[in-house]
Amino acid sequence: MEISFASDSEYSGHGREFAQEGGLELVSRTDLRWYYFLGRLSISKSGIDVGPPWGWVPLFDAMYSVQQTMLFLQGKGAFGDIDFTENDELIKFEVTQGILHVVPTYSELEIRCSVDEFLEAGTGFIKEQLRRVATEFPTLAHNKHALALGQDFGLDNLRR
């Protein structure tokens, strides 16, 4: 199982991070989640990719959604779907007889894996992407919302 994010889609240059005057340290959680760092989300295993076919997914929305799905799978009462506000599509996460089924509404494809595989992939995804964007945009490393997300995954410094 691998979760990744391509920041080279046709929409990547349209996020607010490129129009932002000043740094990103004061950007709100809501704005980070909806308007910054657009790209293509991939959720794949063994050559099957169930990520959305469009390239304008905001990175922080993807990270927060993966985090919520991880909490759901750990029985902590969060949402068990990743939804996309720009349309009615979603990715459903259902556990049946110990197997996690990852099923998008926009495709006939499905991935099956263990919950632990998804949790490991989600943790790696969030850590990797936070480090990447904090390195590319150093003022983001001082944003309280980015820092809080990083701390949830054991990152006290987003640039290491």
Q: What's the Cα radius of gyration?
A: 15 Å
State the helix count: 4
What's the domain count? 1
Largest sheet: 4 strands, antiparallel
Total beta strands = 8
| Percent range of helical residues | 25-40%
Query: How far is it from the N-terminal to the C-terminal residue, by CA?
Result: 24 Å
As an assembly, this protein is: single chain
Indicate the overall shape: globular
Low-confidence stretches: none
Broad structural category: alpha+beta
Secondary-structure element order, N to C: EHEEEHEEEEHH
Name the average pLDDT: 92
Strand content: 15-25%
Give me the secondary-structure topology.
Layout: E1 2-6, H1 29-35, E2 38-45, E3 48-49, E4 57-58, H2 59-73, E5 81-83, E6 90-96, E7 99-104, E8 111-113, H3 115-136, H4 144-152
Antiparallel strand pairs: 1-2, 2-3, 2-4, 5-6, 6-7, 7-8
Q: What does it look like?
A:
The protein has 160 residues and is α+β, with helices and mostly antiparallel strands. It has one domain. The chain has 4 helices and 8 strands. The strands form 2 sheets. Strands 1, 2, 3 and 4 form a 4-stranded antiparallel beta sheet that branches. Strands 5-6-7-8 form a 4-stranded antiparallel beta sheet. Helix 2 (59-73) runs antiparallel to helix 3 (115-136). It is globular and about 50 Å long.
